[in-house]
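task queued by scheduler; priority normal; single chain, no ligands, no partner chains; default sampling; output format set to structure tokens
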Amino acid sequence: MRGALSAACGGSWLIACSPGAPADTTGTPGATTDPPGTSSSAGTSSGVEPTSTTTGTTSATTGTTSITTGTTSASASPTTGAPPLTTDGGTTGGTGSTGPDTTTGDAAGTSTGAAGPALHIEPADAQLEIASGWSFPTQFTAVLGDAPVPALWSVDDPSLGRITRHGGSFSARNTAAGQVQISAEYDGQTATAALELVLVDDHPVCPPRPPLTDGELAPGAFVRVVAPEYAGTGVYHGVYLPPDWTPGRRYPVIVESPCNKYGTFTGKVDDTRLGYHIAGCRSYIYIVVPYIKAKANLDYGWGELDTNLAYWQLNVRRTLEAVGGDPGAVIVGGFSRGAIGAGYVALQDDVIADAWLGFFLHSHADVVSNLTPDGGAGSATRMARTAGRASLLSWGAANDGGSGNSLKGVELLTSFGYPVQTLAVPDVGHTDVWSIDDEASRAIAQSWLFATVAARTGTGAVHGRVTDAQALGVPGVRVEAGPAHFATTDAAGHYALRGLLHGPRTVACQDPACSGPQMVVVADADLDDVDFTIAP
């Protein structure tokens, strides 16, 4: 993970490089402490986004939309750097006008009585494409005459997206198309702009997965990564960056582990492919993690459970920090051993279970069977840690030896009342080759993936801002909500933590001069104004 990656992040790949914001230098996240004081609460999102994003519109296409309330990922966006007029509020502000790039209110007068320059928004009209359940934010700038000014921003339809109150960066919720009006207020004037959200519904197809190679991470390449702790050993994982990967943006992530070695299947990181084809080679970062025994990758069996746990947690987080993976949009899954491992390892305890947004298990599941060291005795406890997040369980419809356990997994998740979708792939047995050549079945799996990532089913979001003693936003500050969830404040001091499990959670600013941690209760509705102040 050197070379181009280090250049993109401005340093070692072990240090977080948050999109569009200064590189995070606070180190890897650790467990947060309980807050000393009272809890913070907030209501339903108003469309004022306390998290900012990169400039520009999105690329490519998307699958089926969903109906729950999750929010999109966002990387940092530029601001003017000038002082804000007010601190963040919980509601949208100002009066909207009737069309794009219009202005209400009095322009500043001159000494001769002539009207001053009018406030306007650039761009006045924009389009944002939602593709594969994902989009990249659109940046707006308030301009008075020829000079950018620090306006206050709002959006007329919060169900379609949010805008940073002080930054002017709009992030779609990715679940619906529509038209939104963006408003900016400054010095008694209000200007508006129009943004069209376009939902492109297609199912992208990958070329053959590139071979695993050594070298630097690069778009469109599948690269062997050796963690520093395992230098000189036989342990490694694989990372694929999508062809559209660009430094400074946030991306959803698929994490997969290999099947066992049998027949033509090698059981190696090198040959794992299911998640690659389901993602469609667009927007998704793809990570393949190993099973480990005696400091070597293991092609059959479970190896050392504690070693696997530590390796998966540390190196998934490192990769997200290094290449802009969104911690709130990580899907875990696999085929055969990989499907069982998505429960046996990925749900082994509450800490690692917190890392995932959804679960894709093809041909097997972690249930009562002779396929795990405990014979499935703890499988119900592990599978319960899906905790209301979305699952897709699939199997081959033609004598797949894993189908019985897949059906047991469906029954178990259904008994918990958790959302689960099923897919019986026609005319195949115990294989993942259908992800390559069965267009119809692959499209069903993609639709589930894209809808899950767009809606962030069963999770919520926390938004806030870090400011200094003068109420100015502080960029580059790390904010955490447990070991798996982190964000870095943008140029206006905004952050967003998305894909958080429902329930109580501690949110902590990692700057030593920051105000103390806050306890919040995460639900479907966004929590706003979980703010921190840095002492002078």
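post-processing summary
- Residues 305-323 form the longest helix (19 residues).
- The first strand starts at residue 48 and ends at 49.
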